Amino acid sequence: MKRLFFILIAVATLFSACDRSEVEDVYNPAEDGIVGNWLSKGADVAPLLATYFKVDSITADFKSNNTYAVTSYAAGVPTNYVGTYAQKKSGTGAIWTIELNQSTPTAVTSEGIFEITKAGTGYTMKYEVVQTEPNIGATPPTASAGFGSSNGGALGQSNIQKFVKR
């Protein structure tokens, strides 16, 4: 009886020691989409950004309340982008559509697609977007045409970004 009493106390102590806030939520890309912290660096940075804007890395934090904060680094100098986003399953494979409404540093709308895949114990994301407002003559990629379909395919693979979930 004494052993049972000590076992019950030990179990109760174990459960009370674990606060719910300490339990990490499980990420489910099929439901959560782009939500989370992402990193793109080195060869994963889209060639268009690396070549023309000298971007060497990007961190992105997409929150479940549909806000985002992205920091782009060019030669170690950060540029911060903040705004809101809307994501939607496209119905084409695991590709989602996304619209970003940036408020900082300037008001810009971008549209595109992304796809998240399991990579070992983590996740990677293919991401392709273009600015649509103010209009710069770019057309966003579509899920049905797939990655590399920005500007009707004219940009090829140069506008595709790869991110790793952190």
Can you give a write-up of this model?
There is one protein chain. The chain is an alpha+beta fold. Mean pLDDT is 89; it is low at 1-23. It has helices spanning 2-17, 29-32, 47-53; strands at 36-41, 55-62, 67-74, 77-89, 95-104, 108-119, 122-133, 161-165. The chain has one domain (26-165): Lipocalin (Beta Barrel). It has an eight-stranded antiparallel beta barrel. A hairpin with a 2-residue loop joins strand 3 and strand 4 (77-89). The radius of gyration is 21 Å and the shape is globular. It is built from three helices and eight strands; from the N terminus they run H-H-E-H-E-E-E-E-E-E-E.
In short:
The protein has one domain: Lipocalin, CATH 2.40.128. The chain is built from 3 helices and 8 strands. The chain has helices at 2-17, 29-32, 47-53, and strands at residues 36-41, 55-62, 67-74, 77-89, 95-104, 108-119, 122-133, 161-165.
Shape: globular
Number of domains: 1
* CATH fold topology: Lipocalin
CATH class: Mainly Beta
Task: Tag the structure with descriptive keywords.
Lipocalin, 45% strand, eight-stranded antiparallel β-barrel, disordered N terminus, 166 residues, alpha+beta, 16% helix
Chart the SSEs and their pairings.
Elements: H1 2-17, H2 29-32, E1 36-41, H3 47-53, E2 55-62, E3 67-74, E4 77-89, E5 95-104, E6 108-119, E7 122-133, E8 161-165
Antiparallel strand pairs: 1-2, 1-8, 2-3, 3-4, 4-5, 5-6, 6-7, 7-8
